[in-house]
Write a structure and sequence with these properties.
Strand content: under 5%
Mean pLDDT: 87
Largest sheet: none
Structural class: mainly alpha
Order of helices and strands: HHH
Shape: flat
Distance between the termini: 26 Å
Low-confidence stretches: none
Radius of gyration: 16 Å
Helix content: over 70%
Number of strands: 0
Number of helices: 3
Oligomer: single chain
Length: about 60
Amino acid sequence: MSRKKRDVKELGQEIDILDHMLDALVETLEEKGVMTTEEWEQKIKAKIEHVAKTQQSFREVERQE
């Protein structure tokens, strides 16, 4: 397997791990009555909208290099 394919595979695995970690965190917050999934999704949406207005995305930075 080429290095690039290996890097992409490893990156995908890391993203999967982060996804599982976030799911577990949201479930824990929900179980403890701290935050609902809906509130979590609203916070994510607001954060994405804010960042889109104020910062460059990773892809934009990558294209400049």
